[in-house]
Amino acid sequence: MQFENSRSFAISMDEADELASFRDRFLQPAHGNGQAIYLLGNSLGLQPRQTQVYINEILKSWQDFGVEGFFMGKEPWLEYHEKLAAPLAAMVGAEPDEIVVMNQLTVNLHLMMASFYKPQGKRRKIICEAKAFPSDQYLLESQCRFHGLDPDDTIVEVKPRAGTDLIAEEDIENAIRQCGDELALVLWGGVNYYTGQYFDLKRLAVATHAAGALLGLDLAHAVGNLPLQLDKWDPDFACWCNYKYVNAGPGSIAAAFIPRRYHKSGRVRLAGWWGYDKAARFKMEKGFVPVQSAEGWQLSTPSPILYAALRASLEIFEEAGMQKLREKSLQLTGYLYFLLDELKMHPAGARVKILTPADPEKRGCQVSLLFEQQGRAIFDALMKEGIFVDWREPNVIRLAPVPLYNQFEEVWKFCDLLKRIG
What domains sit in the chain, N to C, each tagged with a CATH number? Predict the structure, then answer.
């Protein structure tokens, strides 16, 4: 597409956008007498208008039925999970019985590690990305210590080459080959939280399995951002939160993908009552008998309030469709890159470096900008003007034009203000 650097062009793009109406399905933060420009869906998505409706329905059932709300009313809580697994499965390219909605992201990763990280003999090493999100770093460190291993000897980090900001795919494969039969697990992020780099997850799975190791994925920054195909890519497990691009609210209930090949494998897990065979769960008998699906990894009774918040957003994704959202996302980020490239001809552009890959196939919604000077002052100025972006030490501003609720005009306003601040 031939872009133009003008507000009128951006407005014309919004007028032609077939997904434009979905913006009204979300509540926008205010700024002054109008709306703020919210470019922070990579950190916390906006609230769907339907969220309050569905939560109030849960509260009303609690009021009317008490604990019997699990079994009574128009939508018993005991069956609520069934409203969530299918739309999530469609988003990540899996079957509904391979999806379980439970806990939070790091809790789920620990549960998956309990089942899939089995250090034996010399096969004990773990490969991860350098600058993984801190929770993943702490998770791996503590898992090593739990198994009596030294994290420094066990964890292999793959980092960008000297003078670069992104991790080369071949360097990941080289690290896997070098570990060889010492490698037990690769735990990798689908999209790097800092740079916004999107990795070739099928390529990663092939290399990992060729080494006789297992692959786990942290998809916190990928789900709801990019169309995924987990069944085709073949990881051994994947986990994600639902409060970023999936818009299920702060601290929302998370989810995990566990392929069918493991449902009846007898693989050891940390068990809980909610993962027990549904037909016999209320017999309260000894001896754990898991649900023969991903739900067999559940532990505790989930909150139907959190279920309801997730449902409100998933219905919007079902209606919009991930492929159409991806097409708009590519246009939004493409327009952002075009405007930032024009900004390089302005003095302000001399101190801005784009960390996120230029290749559209290697990025999602997020774009990370590194400022050589005055980055914090620029961030503060943007926030003061009602443009919500994200600051990451020491000098990076992250933003994410989200196709469900962001506009081309907002992207233009961001770049226009960035130019004027400079």
Answer: 7-17+321-421 (3.90.1150.10), 56-318 (3.40.640.10)
Report whether 123 contacts 261 (CB < 8 A).
no
> Nearest 10 degrees: CA dihedral of 355, 138, 122, 264?
-100
The DSSP 8-state label assigned to residue 293 in this structure reads: S
Which run of H or of E encompasses 29? none
Residue 225: which region, alpha, beta or left (left: phi > 0; alpha: psi -120 to 50)? alpha
DSSP annotation string for 99-113 = EEE-S-HHHHHHHHH
First vs last C-alpha separation in the chain? 28
- pLDDT digit string (tens) for 253-278? 999 999 999 999 888 999 999 999 99
Give the residue ranges of DSSP H helices in 82-220.
82-92, 105-116, 134-146, 151-154, 169-179, 201-210
For residues 158-168, average pLDDT: 96
The H-or-E segment that residue 360 falls in is none
CA 139 to chain CA centroid, Å, is 17
8-46 pLDDT tens trace: 999 999 999 999 999 999 999 999 999 999 999 999 999
The tokens describing 104, both together, are 């939070």
**Distant-in-sequence, close-in-space partners of 311: CB < 8 Å, separation ≥ 6:** 54, 80, 83, 84
Tell me the pLDDT tens digit for each residue of 168-201. Answer: 999 999 999 999 999 999 999 999 999 999 999 9
CA distances (Å), 239 to each of 50, 99, 229, 362, in order?
25, 10, 14, 20
Q: What is the DSSP letter of 398?
A: E
Determine the number of helices (DSSP H) and then strands (DSSP E) in the chain: 13, 17
Strand, helix or coil for residue 243: coil
Sign for the CA dihedral angle at 196, 197, 203, 205 comes to negative
DSSP collapsed to 3 states, 374-392: CHHHHHHHHHHCCEECEEE
Q: Is the pLDDT of residue 294 over 70?
A: yes
The SS3 assignment for 259 reads coil
Token pair for residue 383?
């926030």
